[in-house]
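User: My instructor asked us to take a sequence, write out its structure as tokens, and then describe one feature of it. I'm not sure where to start. Here is the sequence I was given:
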Amino acid sequence: MTIEEKPEPGRSPGGRACRAGLLFVVSAPSGAGKTSLLDALQARDPQVLLSVSYTTRAPRPGEQEGRHYHFVPRAQFEQMLERGEFLESALVHGNYYGTSERWVLDRLDAGANVVLEIDWQGAAQVRRRFSDSIGIFILPPSLEALESRLNARRQDTPAVIAARLRAAREEISHVGEFDYVIINDEFDRAVDDLRAVIRAARLRTQTQFAANPRLHQF
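Assistant: Let's start with the prediction itself. The structure tokens for your sequence are:
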């Protein structure tokens, strides 16, 4: 690269504008294990920040306010929606879910690797805003395995489980919209696959130039 070709700060050698942080979108049908995978990812890679979504549904056993979700009344969520506070939002199984836009933008500007745990509808909204976001879809090894996992959780009635399985078929039909697919058959291998996607994204040329100002000296 000649002196004349040196990229401007904040741009890759090809001239593309760069953000300091990376945005990952992880989706999966209910019961595929994405929450457990992301907890394991964060434990092994503290540089990854998990966005905490807002929701109108009631907490499940063991869920904590501010750690798993921000649990808010439906009226409050709808007010936030009207004010345009969400990067994405969706109505899933009769409950609202949404991601704070300000929280995400602040952390991307600070150079963080942000992971959104959202459904395919929210993922489509994020792609329209951030075309360089990285989509990861978690699949169960089979629908039969998914049904077994849902039953093993003992959190839902048979009618709810049946509804979740119908929704799973619809969600899985959108897998082609994502950049990577991870099959959660063996948990440790699935975690390693997830970490591999994160590591590879950090090594992309535009990401390296955004994160390492000294590269602009070459």
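For the description part of your assignment, you could build on this observation: Helices lie at 34-44, 74-82, 101-109, 120-129, 143-153, 158-172, 187-202, 205-211. Try explaining in your own words what that tells you about the chain.
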